[in-house]
User: What shape does this take?
Amino acid sequence: MVNYPPEPFRIKMVEPIKMIDRQTREAALKRANYNVFGLRAEEIFIDLLTDSGTGAMSQHQWSAMMEGDESYAGANSYFRLAEAMREIFGFRFFVPTHQGRAAENILCAVALGEGEYIPSNMHFDTTEGNIRARGGRPTNLVIDEAFDPGNRHPFKGNMDIDKLRAFIEEVGVDKVPFGMITITNNAGGGQPVSMENLKAVADVYKEYEIPFFIDACRFAENAYFIKLREPGYENKTTLEIAQETFALADGATMSAKKDAIVNIGGFLAMNDEGLFQKVKNELILREGFPTYGGLAGRDLDAIATGLREGLDEDYLAYRLGQTAYLGKKLLEVGIPIVEPPGGHAVYIDAGSLLAHIPPADFPGQSLAVELYLEGGIRGVELGSVAFAYPDPSTGETIHPKMELVRLAIPRRVYTQAHMDYIVKTFEKIKARQERIRGYRITYAPELLRHFTAQFEPIG
Ligand code: F0G
Assistant: This one.
C-alpha cells in the first residue's frame, strides 16, 4: 500500500497554470510538428518533460541568492559552494559549469580520444552525445533485469560486473580512458545502483587503472534508495551514504538542476591534479573562470544550499513517495510502467501499451502526443526517437531495448491532485489505445535528434 506522503513544506508563492481547449492543443501540436519540445509552456497544463531545472527553490535558496557575490574571481559564493562540495563529495578539485552537459563536454575534451570507449551502466543522451561528438563510443553495460519492465529488482541501475570485465578485456584497457556509472540510471527508468554494485564497479576500474567518474545528477535519490533497500544502510544518513559513494570514485559530473534543486548549474569534480589543470584551461575557453564556470555567483549559492536540501530525508521520503504513488496508481488502471517506479520519474512502457505500433513507427512518440492531446500533459519519449542510431559498420538502424515515455516529476512543484489527474488522463487514452497511430520523422539532426525532430502521423 503506497500512501501519498504529505508534502514537508507549505506553499507561499504560486504559479498559475491553465488548460487550453482541445482544438487549440491540436493546432499547437501541428505547429510544433508533433514534437512536444516545440510547444510553448503556456500551452501546457502539467509539464512532466523534465525534472531538470524545473524544481521549486526553497526560501533558504532564494535568500542565499541574495548574498551571491558576483566577483569575477575568488567570489565568496564559490567558497561556500566549495565547502558543500567538500562535505558531500570530498573530491580534491572541482569546477562549476553552467549545466551537466558542459561538465561532460569538458571531461570528454580533455580525456577522450577518437575511437575510445566509455563504459557505463547506461549513459544519458547528453553524455552519449558528448562522447560520440569526440569520436568516442559510449557503451551501456547495465544488468539484463533493466530491460525487463516488470522485473522488480531493487537496484535495476546496477552495472553487470561480468559484462564490464569482459568488455574491458575485449576492447583493451588502453582504449578505455575513463569509466562511468549514472546514479540513478535515468536512461533505464530512473533506477538506483546499490552500494555493493558501486563498490564492485570501482574495484574493476581500479584493477585496470581506469579512472572512475560518477554521473551524480540524482545522487541524493540514489542514496535514499540505498537507505530504503540495501541491508546495512537503514541507519546511515543519506549524507553518509553519499560520502561513501563518492569515496569510491576518482571524479564526478553533475547537473545541479536535478538533486541540487536549482534552475541552472552543474560541476565537474576530480582528484587528479594534472587533469584538473587541463580542465581549468578548457573551462576558461568554454565556460568561464574556474571560480564561476559560466554561472552567476548567486547560482553558486543556490547550489550550495540546494545540495544540502536535496539530501534532507523528510524531503526524500516525500519525493520518492510521490513517484511511487503515481506509479502504483498507473499500474492499478492497467498502464504498464517500468517497475518499480524510479526516483525522479515514472516511465511508461509505450512499446507494450501500444504494441500494435512497431518501434520504427515510434510508439513512444505516439503516446507523448496523445498525452498532450488528451490532458495537456507533456512527457518525453525515451525510445527509438531518442536512442535509435545507425550501426557504424552496417548503417542499419539499431533500436533501443525499450520504447518508453518518461513522466519526470519536477521537485516540490505538483500535488496529489495533479498526480490523480495524470492517472485519469491515462485511463482515457487506454480506452482508445488501439486507434492510436504511429509517426514518421520528416526532419532530424544527426545527434540528440529528439529535441528538434519533426514528425507527421502515419496514415
Ligand atoms: N546526466 C544525466 C543522468 C541527466 O539526466 C542529464 C540531464 C545530464 C547528465 C545532463 O545535464 O541537462 O544539466 O546538461 N537530464 C535532463 C533530463 C535533461 O531531462 O533528464 P544538463
Summary: Residues 50, 52, 99-101, 124, 126-127, 182, 186, 215, 217, 255, 257, 266, 408 surround F0G (CB under 6 Å). Residues 22-51+313-457 form a domain with the Aspartate Aminotransferase, domain 1 fold (CATH 3.90.1150.10).
